[in-house]
Amino acid sequence: ALRRPSIRFPSIHFFVQSVNSTSTMQLSLALGLLCASSAAAFAPNAPSRAVSVSSSALNSFSSKIFEVRDVEFADTKEQIVKGGRDLFSKLPEAFEGIKEIGVIGWGSQAPAQAQNMRDSLNEVGCDIKVRIGLREGSSSFEEAREVGFSEDADTLGEMYDIIGKSDLVMLLISDAAQASLYKEIFAAMKPGATLGLSHGFLLGYLESIGEDFPEDMDVIAVCPKGMGPSVRRLYEQGKEVNGAGINASFAVHQDKSGKATELALGWGVAVGSPFMFETTLSSEYRSDIYGERGILLGAVHGIVESLYRRYQRQGMSPEEAFTESCESITGNIVKIISTQGIKAVYDGLEGEDRDIFKQAYSASYLPSKEILQEIYDEVSSGNEIRTVIMHGKRIAQFPVGKIDGTDTWAVGEKVRASRDEEKIPLNPFTAGVYVATMMAQIDVLLEAGHPYSEVVNESVIEAVDSLCPYMHYKGVAFMVDNCSFTAKTGSRKWAPRFDYILDQLAYTAVDNGKPVNEDLISAFESHKVHAAVEECCKLRPSVDISVGETSSTKEIVIE
User: Which of 285, 462, 485, 486 sees the fewest Cβ atoms within 10 Å?
Assistant: First the structure.
């Protein structure tokens, strides 16, 4: 039987201001994403690349309710708002004018955010009603009832009815569903209501078809940098230490009321974000969709598959190969990164192990960056948004299956059942490949103009503090099978590309004795991102996520 240990990972959380690069990264796509009548309708303009970022913070935000703090990351000054349960008393002021909140959907984020929001408001005696809105006949009605929402209490109902009653509509249905239903949703909202999002995907889609949000509403976003279950688990686990949770970005896309920033910050505090940083919807979806196709999901999947085969070719048993590849990443390497930073993995190696790391890093960085740059371009051009939309239209005919039946993940289940946490190795070759891919992902984002706040979140924090704990507990395949539809679509599309290019270019370079590129190693050693990550390590809450403890959240989506 599969043993279910309580795996605890340190959580790095922070909340900093993003530089507004919207004007330089606008999508320009052909009209007719959902119903294009010709191939020409799918031809995007070439995405822009180098976007300059000032060494000081731009577009500084202010708050009359929450303290805004300056934080130094490498050569940039960014701004954060620190959360905590001691700020719950400020929620009534932040939610001024909001009497009813409608949380629409019941996927990854909705159950966590709805429960956290309800519990935080109740704790300070705030009479704002939090309701769940679901499509008629949804099987999720029963799950919502199980955690305290009900028709009898007028906290559960049909989605359009709930939308029409709500002053704040937290639209947390899938990205593909948002793209399909946005007209009906906008029409159902009452005058003066605020639209709240947890992803910038809908903006990307609207831009791609030449449309925008209605001008007469506030549009805000609070985007936790982790999967929904981790948002709930850390909220529950942090109740005795002034809070813990998943850090979040926030964006104010339209502010007709003049209160949008305070409402967004209040939302972030209420769902348990220990730190919040400002971004734009445009920058958020580019970095987020890109990140989950990279080191967060797609790349780590491809790395493990390629190394698992490589190590067996070198004479290891399947169990040894899985341990030296997947277990080394999820059970050792990411723990070091979480508490000490990326460079600490390298600094902890000596002699031959450090030489092996250099070989793997040098050979893997450019092949990985090639794929990562392609992913970023595909996201920026709108191609990845089209992929998600088209996949959603095919889903009834071609349901998404599970990937955990292959040899790699079957062996992984056996390894986890007999795991000794204290004996998980740090394989220097695995570390070199993983760190090279992470650094390549970071560099693509920095070169595109994203600030350190967003870069570190989408390339480091979410990987080591939200996703890898679940990968270690249940497997990489489990994470891919049970993530959001958008992330699942991208991971399954891009993981084979990482697998193939590493096998074909990186590992053959090592095997053929290609010299280490010392310039790449020097650039890694002196990279400014290390200081930014180390600063984040100082800001993390004291509570670590424990994925094995009892929780009101559910991780399993596909049975």
Answer: 485
